[in-house]
Specification:
The chain is of the alpha+beta class. It folds into 2 domains: 120 residues, N-terminal domain of MutM-like DNA repair proteins (Alpha-Beta Barrel), CATH 3.20.190; 124 residues, Helicase, Ruva Protein, domain 3, CATH 1.10.8.50. 25% of the residues lie in helices and 22% in strands. The chain contains 6 helices and 10 strands; from the N terminus they run H-E-H-E-E-E-E-E-E-E-H-H-H-H-E-E. The strands form 3 sheets. A 4-stranded antiparallel beta sheet has the order 1-6-7-5, with helices on one face. A hairpin with a 4-residue loop joins strand 6 and strand 7. It is elongated and about 55 Å long. The protein starts with a helix and ends in a 6-residue tail after the last strand. It binds a DNA duplex through helix 5.
Length: 268
Amino acid sequence: MPELPEVETIANGVNERVRGARIVSVWTSGKPQTFKSPENEIEEVLTGARIERVRRVGKTVVVTLGREQGQAEFLVHLGMTGRLLVAEREVPLPAHTHAVLTLADGREVRFVDPRRFGRLSVVREAYLGPGAEPTTIGDEEFAKLFRGRKVAIKAALLNQSLLHGVGNIYADESLFRAGIRPTRAAGKLTRTELARLREALQKVLARAIELGGSSVSDYVDAEGMTGYFQIEHAVYGRGGEACKVCGTAIKKMVLGGRGTHYCPVCQR
DNA sequence: CGTCCCACCTGATTGC
DNA sequence: TGCAATCAGGTGGGAC
């Protein structure tokens, strides 16, 4: 589900609500694939810890913990349908809840994930993530990521070990705004095209963060509110509809197993 | 190593 | 209406 703007919205929302709070108890569901670290280790590391801050790294929500036993971070990857909610204890637990952190004031941080593609883990060092940060990367470094690569530029944008945080919506939207066909070989884009792509990507991400992300079906923030960037989607989810720039029908194809949307006239 | 494809899940929507 | 097929904001592992 969530890409960089959605994960950032969630992380900021959770941070504002629970920063400084103490975790007094932890419950986990026992569904094995949800837990990348052993469940008992997660419970042990979180119980009694203070939440120092919550931030986004790539598509991961990172909770920095204050503990007498030493540094640790709690990592929440939301997969396709994961939600991280801060709720009063009276609010009924949603179906598919896989972890609940109870805070000293009685509120709960809840991880809910119907499809169970999300993953929870703890690490003992500061988490940096696999790839470069797209919101701040410069032209030089951005261009270097794609040099010599034969894969389609869309597939390269989705590769988290190159750039972390870009997913299917923002790959399609930024390629449209840069006027680049998603199927073009990443290594064959010109310097000008790469500069346009970097700028388009950063503008799209910044605007989406402003609007609280895109809510296509499942996504909500820490308070359960939807985002609004889907209103500004130019191509994603608009197959067959008219291009907002030239009126041509938006095409939808499958590229690297993902639905891919583009304008055959505006994107070359 | 780079690239491709599929499996991992549930739920909503589409089509017969 | 009912039921099966298809499709989803993601990743990771195996095959080549």
